[in-house]
Design goal:
- This protein has 10 helices and 15 strands.
- The protein is an alpha/beta fold.
- Strands 5-4-3-2-1-14-15 form a 7-stranded mixed sheet, with no helix packed on it. A 6-stranded mixed sheet has the order 6-7-8-9-10-13. The chain has a two-stranded antiparallel sheet with strand order 11-12.
- A hairpin with a 2-residue loop joins strand 7 and strand 8.
Length: 278
């Protein structure tokens, strides 16, 4: 049966999202977050016998490329990678000293793995400020976050928008652009920018795109900055989630762990989904 699995991995601070199209088993991975003792690349390979056909890197901050050493291992290496280029010396210098080696490993990875675009049976659109424009418009301190890819993935009726680490000013510009409004309108699931932080909340989203059914936030425990508006019916339509009473407007990896949304069609042809951990 044709179906889509969305897996949002519990990687603490960071992001790693897999979109798995069945029966083709085509895998799009967004970002290379990982957590102590857990790497999405090894989970895909060892538990599901899958490798990413393409990994999209929203931006090269260490928490979004933390699994880069695994990606360099030929046993787990993705088949293709999609990224934008930066002044790597500048990006490296902005990381904490103990994390700067991640940038070196990442530049090694993009030399080894072929650059490629999505080639599955859904539709993937990518929007971004390039690094120079982001620096010009948003300044040195936030330009790497604000050059994040904004991805809109559409499989049949289901639409998923993934916003990297865009901050409030970058997100405001993004969701005001006509092309983005057209592409993201009617989003079912939003993976919010900047780990659901208040600095990144998409204020104009509902007016421009309508309410998503719900948001899935990748966030570490004890992070106090998640914006409560994501959990409001003013921002989302709500779904039933087995572990929660009443409609649920947002799910977080810190509360639910790894999150799986399975999407397919029933015999009558109606779209349906189910929600589980894994």
């Amino acid at each position: 049966m044709d179906s889509l699995d969305l897996r949002v991995f519990n990687v603490g601070q960071g992001l790693s999202v897999a979109l798995i199209e069945n029966p083709e088993r085509y895998v799009t991975l967004v970002d290379l977050g990982s957590n102590t003792g857990f790497t999405p690349l090894k989970h895909l390979s060892l538990s599901l016998k899958l490798k990413p056909d393409v990994v999209y890197i929203t931006h090269p901050h260490a928490d979004h490329i933390n699994d880069v050493e695994t990606a360099l291992d030929p046993n787990f290496q993705p088949l293709g990678i999609n990224y934008q280029t930066y002044d790597w010396t500048d990006v490296k210098g902005r990381e904490k000293p103990e994390l700067r080696h991640k940038i070196d490993k990442y530049t090694e990875l993009i030399k080894k793995v072929p650059f490629c675009n999505y080639a599955g049976n859904a539709n993937l659109e990518v929007y971004r400020y390039d690094s120079a424009d982001a620096k010009k418009h948003f300044g040195d301190a936030s330009y790497v976050n604000n050059s994040s890819y904004f991805l809109v993935y559409t499989w049949r009726d289901f639409k998923i928008s993934i916003a990297g680490d865009l901050e409030s000013n970058g997100m405001a510009g993004m969701v005001s652009a006509d092309a983005v409004k057209k592409a993201a309108k009617g989003t079912y699931i939003l993976i919010p920018p900047h780990h659901g932080h208040k600095n990144g909340f998409p204020t104009e989203w509902v007016a421009n795109m309508g309410k998503p059914y719900f948001s899935i936030i990748s966030v570490q425990s004890r992070d106090p900055n998640v914006d409560p508006r994501y959990s409001s019916p003013a921002f989302a339509r709500g779904v039933e989630w087995a572990s929660k009473p009443g409609p649920c407007y947002t799910l977080t990896t810190r509360s639910e762990g790894h999150i799986l949304v399975h999407m397919d069609y029933c015999q009558s042809g109606n779209a349906q989904w189910s929600f589980n951990g894994f």
